[in-house]
Amino acid sequence: MDDAIYVGNAGVDGATNGGWLLGHFMPPGEVRHSTDVEIKWGVHPPGETRARWATGERRTALLVLVSGRFRVELPDRTVVLGAPGDYVVWGPGVDHSWYAERESVVLTVRWPSVPGYRVEPPVIR
After folding, report:
1. Count of alpha carbons within 13 angstroms of residue 30, beta-carbon side
2. What is the pTM of this model?
3. What is the mean pLDDT of residues 10-21?
4. Could you tell me the fold of the domain covering 2-117?
């Protein structure tokens, strides 16, 4: 039964895997391995931005602000997450980018978990 349970800390575990806690990229056979969903605990210093826009997206995404101030850039609008609990959801086909206006913690859920979407690490502006 122990292999069906994992107990950890999002800040500690996420720091070793780009923030990601669950998804197809976790070791097969581990309870955190999933092709259904990906979950990330993103800790972003002020001025950090996505290295390039995500295009050709095939997943649905939910971003929930835990703390800070975080800007999500979408094709026709900008969404600012400014209060804990603020969130944005977009579906497949929506290009996006982001920028941490202040130090921010963001919980991201994406589904399904699709291999091949890794991009360059974020940059600080």
Report:
1. 12
2. 0.90
3. 91
4. Jelly Rolls (2.60.120)
